[in-house]
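To the team - thiamine diphosphate complex, inputs and output below.
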Amino acid sequence: MSANIVSETLPVNQEHALFLFQEMLRIRRFEEKAAEMYSLQKIHGFLHLYIGEEATGVGAMQAFTPDDAIVATYREHGHALARGMQAPVLMAEMFGKATGCSHGHGGSMHFFDASRRFYGGYAIVGGGLPIAVGLALADKMQGRKRVTACFFGDGAVAEGEFHESMNLAALWKLPVAFLCENNLYAMGTALVRHQSQTNISLKARAYNMESGAVDGMDVLAVEAAAKRAAEFVRSGNGPFLLELQTYRFRAHSMADPDLYRTKEEIEEWKKRDPIPLFKFRLQEWGYLNESDMVRIESEISAEIEEAVRFAEISPEEPIEDLLKDVSTQVKP
Amino acid sequence: MTYREAVRAALRKALRGDPRVFLMGEDVGRYGGAFAVSHGLLGEFGPERIRDTPLSESVFVGAGIGAALGGMRPIVEIMTVNFSMLAMDQILNNAATLRHMSGGQFSVPLVVRIATGGGRQMAAQHSNSLEVWYAHIPGIKVLTPATVTDAYGMLLGAIPEPDPVFIFEHATLYPLEGDVDETAKIADINRAAVRRAGRDVSLITYGGTLGKTLQAAELLAAESIDAEVIDLRSLRPLDTAAILDSVAKTHRAVIVDEGWKTGSFAGEVSAQIMELGFDDLDAPVARVCSAEVPMPYAKHLETAALPQVEGIVNAARNMVPRHG
Ligand SMILES: Cc1ncc(C[n+]2csc(CCOP(=O)(O)OP(=O)(O)O)c2C)c(N)n1
Ligand SMILES: [Mg+2]
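Output:
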């Protein structure tokens, strides 16, 4: 199944379809609010938005159970939300508050949640892959049938850690689902200018690993492909590399003037915006009418307003606790 | 038994005592370890627990971190400290940060053993003593066992630690002979040790230079200079109290460190004495470190580059006033 574009989708019922739609819309609105909060200087540091890529995170996350592990990158707001982390603790984290999912130690790039086996956002490109390999090794050695899902960008494919991780995971047949979100850019460097072989899923062949690619703007296609990949891995066949072909509509980060691509290119991709694309299908199927839409938007809006309110009123970590979590506190 | 056998005995005991413990690294299995430390363990524990890895320092250290997060107790061997540079991303950015960055949600109970140091004519890419680079990093522990007993006890002491521990084994120590009490309780890995008590000058060292420093102390004794020898044992955390206690007694300190002098761990010890024990000093602190040169191959040049007994004796002699 190497390197084929997988586009067939599973039959989908109304409830699940609406769930996927709401998940994507929630991420979109959360990210829009994050951008606004950044402009208001409530959020500082680096802020990387997921706008345009919602179908990849939401679709892929459907393939993993609460027992599975998730490893993500600094562009992880969508993955965290799709994993069930709540908007208020994420917003509070970006506000640098004690109630944030990492107590304000991590910020936008470093969300963590032990209770959801969300092993974090990693801000060194490629740095999360070896961690995912190790989590999978622990599962294999302890005889657990769990999968580790590892998200990373196309830029990470150029790092040595990608190649080391692919090789070791395949060599030891470890249960890792490698999920490459190929948005065609690593910061300002286009895929064609950073890869000698731009077909990313093909790279798995060098490691004797199974792989595939999917239209990352089609949430159902992503879900179907991710489920196949996860089942392959879960059945003890070793790792799988799935390339999710997507595009980011916003700049790399809030600090990026976006000078390296044309407005026309972005507009062209926006025609394939995963949210209106899916909304259109839902309407076609009679799953969604205008009053549903108004209700969904207002529910999401309330949730995100609540997240901002919670972040605003939350306390900061006391400075006395500055060194608290550097090492484990050993009880005397 | 030898230092090498002591490390092996500790590995064996750890592997027998806890099914979560496993060893991984380059050539730890079939080859038996580049320094023969893990010789025989593959036969006893099998390839699941004695894992030969590809030449991929970054992923096998990172996988150690991930496996620790996943409930295992990995021991990772890095053949030589120079090779550990290829894993520095995982060490600095992941192992050392995960606990803090996650707001205390995750800890990384990982042990990494690294062979270090010069003196074996291995030239510029296999002979460095880079412990100070590790000691710079909050969130990890850095141990430097210098005796056969510590080779055994400090490894066993590291395994139950909830956070990452890096153990530096100086490669010249592996053949060192000594006694190990395998029934003794595991060593305290946070404290320095007084290896020789004395009144006139404190010789402060760790790891591979302990032997040379003790020899220097004997030569100084012949000149009626009574040197105290402090073995730091742990660079992070640093037992500052032990250093200050000794300096309060002797009023003089020579720090012996196989790292290059600029930015050396000796510089850190010296600064701590200056900040916290300045009034106790009767002479400026001296440092005996490696010369500022990539490690040369030729024996006479390598010897000249590394701290030697004579240099330690001279440094101490220069700061102790002549008796009678
Ligand atoms: C090792 C490393 N080098 C460089 C950077 C700076 N940097 C941050 S994100 C990025 C681009 C990564 O692109 P990609 O992996 O495709 O992810 P995307 O941002 O597109 O989601 C770069 C170069 C970094 N964080 N880490
Ligand atoms: Mg990219």
